Amino acid sequence: MSLGGIALATDFALLIVAAAVLSYVARLTGQPTIVAYILTGVVVGPIGLGIVGEDQLIEILSELGLGFLLFLLGIEMRFDDIREIMRPVGMIAVGQAVLQAVASTAVALALGFTLFQSLMLALATTFGATPIIVKVLGDKGDLKTLYGKADVGILIFQDIYLVLALAILAVGTVDDTAEIATSIGRVLILMVAIGLVAYAASKYVLPSLLRASAANKSTLFTVGIAWAFVFIFAAEALELSVELGAFIAGLSLAQLPYSTELKERMRPATNFFIAVFFASIALQMERGQLLAYWQEALLACAALLVINFGIVFGLFYSQRFDIETSFLGTISMLQVSEFSVVLGALAVNEGFVEEGILGFLSLMALVTMPISTYYVRYNREIFDRVEPFLSRFEREDTITVDPVEHDDHAVLVGYSRFTAELAEVLTDADTADVTDVVVIEDGAAYVDELSAAEYAFIFGNARHGEIRQEANIGGATVLVSVADRTDVNRRLIEETADTDTLSIILATDEEDAQALRDAGADYVVAETKLVGTELATLLELLDDREAFEERMASVTARARSEGVRADGGECDGEGDSGRADGGEDNGKVNSGRAGDGGADDDRTAGGEDSDRRGEGETDV
Amino acid sequence: MYEVLFALMLIFSVAAVFLLLAAQWDLPVIPFYLLAGIFVGVVIDETQLLDLAQWGVAFLVFLFGVHVDLEFVRSTGRLSVAVSVLQAAVVGGLGFGAGLALGLDAINASYLGITAALSSSLVATSYLDTTAGVRPTYARLAESVHFTEDVLGVLAVLTLSAVVYAATPAWEQFAVAAGIVALALLIRYTVFHRLTARLRGDSEILMLVGISFVVGFIALAEAAALSIVVGAFAAGIAVADDYPHSLELVDTVDDLEDFFSPIFFVTLGALLTLPGLETAGYTLTLLVAILVLNPVLAAALFVRAGFDGRTAVLTALTLDQVSIFSLFIAIEALGAEQIARPVFDAIVLAAVVSMLVATYTGRHAESIAQWLRDRGFARALGESVTSHSSVADDLSDHVIVVDLEYGGRELVERAADSKWGQAHPFLVIEDDPSVLGELESICDNYVYGDVSNDDVWEQARLSDAALVVALTPRPARADAVVALETDIPRLVRVDAIEDAAEFADRGATGVIYPDAIAAERVGDDLAALLAEELSLEEFEARARQRTRE
Lengths: 620, 549
Prior knowledge:
The complex is a heterodimer of chains A (620) and B (549). Chain A is mainly alpha-helical and 620 residues long.
């Protein structure tokens, strides 16, 4: 214990800096970061410079990285997103797993691997690389297209397949078949048991637990991590795969409203640890091991591209997807995934295969992933070239889906009296510009109310890209924000800049308001300034006692009533003249808004600088 | 692996349980992490987690460095810096003396002194969260005091690592540390933006860049045999906290810190041993210094410096907890085996107790201030109302505005240009000394002081006034206006429906609910736009008219 002296593990520090430098280079060349991470291990490890060896901190963090990655994968499992195309996508995924396994085994055998090695390679190379597909399609804005959704759906099925493979690998090497059978049986039984515990928890325990912890940003995060660790540790203690435990923990959180926010809060830690994981893979490898089968690896890459294209394209086509969708959906999936490397690393750890096989898989990943980013990025251009050859397969009655994302909608960032009333204006208007209202709010006090309301509700903070994407900010017709962070508002405006979204922002002070106007917001008012101006108008009546009191009463009545809007907008006359005490008149309460109760009721006057807006974060 | 996983599982589960309790009562998280540590410490071997724990320290200090706003430091002026240095010096000296008197050696006595003197920004106003919004005077004042004390904390860490932990005291380390900070500033103003310009929108790589900064500067610090705290602080200085990095780099590191800092605090709690009599004695000494001496001294100094009694007391009440840097010092000293075990335990215990007490006093600061005022505390410290006031002798039929900000400024400015404004002169009651200069230039009548002080109202000639307007969002100030025993009409701002009802029932002539007013005005414009009564251009122009005409 030497906190006073040299304390940071040097190996670890070097690894991180190298990963940062290489991922910077990757970014400049348009490559996914995973490739940079794997290369980091190659460059600084024994294969390259030999300046970093394995140490305990690297080991702990890479193990955590894998656990957290699977946890996030579990959280992301929302079958709602692909419900419409679940059946065809499921057929493709299963068909692909089987056919590709057969084909890969055959190729591996032909390349001279043993049967056992070939089966292991087949098991490991079935996956599409999520980071590439999701990242590149996301950048192209294609994730919501039919082929994007189909690919994401296939990836979800592959995740399940991956988890099963991990569970089986974790059994470890055993000698006779009877033992294998009992081991696998034990794994399956325990898995089901853990799954049942998780399911029961997600029904009866988690909703109220997370509801209680959502009050404070640190609490939600800590409870989420604790939940993951309980399952990770349980899996470890039962000698199951840690990744499986993490996956089930995530799955049990997936259907709750807090999942996106929690996921986004855990993402930085996961990204950090997973970088360590991929960088550490090559640390255990000698140069000879990485290059042991380099010729085979290159041949296998070529074979994989050709054979898998045939298999996946055929499957897409057989499920009645049109030619373009089939083509685009297929070429996105053509690479060796990071999970191949994960499975390979586990297989090496468990003693199934030697390092050379891991080297083979790593090499395949290092070759196919960078190349595939290019053909995924330019997929439409490629399709235009090959379309003449494929068009004769075109047929009628193909699958079409309606977009499930929000469209023609208004996004309210932060739920307050202000946004709630504007939502009424937007939905009451006969012009029907807005068909749908989405509220983004991370105040725990509003969860019940907003979940019950007629509006779509996303629990979370708009500072996260994922939350903004889920609300489809870029495609919104109207954006109303009371976010109290100017940088968040600026990002919101930037994301609506390309479309003709009407942006209305209530800023805290004039300085922020001006910055937001300069950034391109349509309608910005600084609340304090508006109130000062309003009041000045009011005080003009000061010498006309009767008129003054009448006005004052109406302002007071409005303040005391729940979000009221008179039709036609002019609300001034509403407080009935002469009723200066403002006692019993609560105005007309518009019944259009469900669950009026808590819009502003939950504000506690905790100290002077109490959080004025719901969107704000709770202080430490 | 099994042990580490077990330890992490236990740390986060116990911390989660404690945090749920904290959330239930709306209490701060840090003391609960420490408490969780005391429980966890029974079961696990915490030393294996020190590697992870110090990443918590690194990220905490890094983020402190990131949020250092050099502009802000310049603008708050020397006054609060002088007050906090003076307060820290006096209490630190007393703590040091008490340590010596209790029989400690000079080094251990200095730990006591440092712990007694410094308070933490993380528990009190938490300027790590400087979101725009309502910042009452005392909070701004407290911010700059805390900032000064945090810088003193960094200096204390630096001094200790250069002089105490080093084999031979090396004063030239200060020059090295200054060099590292200078390098950080150089990077911030020359390299940083160029480096990150191409990473826009890629928070994953930006996070790695941020971590690399931390790692790189810590490596530099370590190469110079300095504490990692110095390196992490410099790394924070090197990162600019502006758009869009605030979203893409700072926020992600912030999330990362949420993973590591519980490990740090829980580990710290786990390091506690069962307190003996000696520990209890030191803890008591520290608590007296932190909970009583610090606030009283600070309040007295602020009143002497010309602040009103209430602001002085409220600011002073944010100073009653142990600084995060004292905890860093304690754990570094423990690592270097330079601290007596009872002193270490006392520092951590004092941190737990004082952080909890600080939450209580922070939450009830207003009533404590009022209680003290009722007993003549402010007067005893020498508060004066007349020194910064200007009221015309024949002032009558005037409008009294409480606070220049939050709309008061617009009101006064518009009144000056209008006919009714000539008939009704304005008088502003303000407690923020930083706007006094502006006040003098835009309005003839003003009183500097606290609205809960009757003398202030007398000075403002309340009985001759036509109207009182309080646009302040600070409930206590609005409350004081509502509670005035007078027939003069009063308009008060509220931020919740229940307050509106309550204030109206208690005698406010009218209540102003800014959100409701904004909703009405903006709603009108929006409805007109939707009904095609306004073109988009006209709609956009309306926003400006709403605040300018």
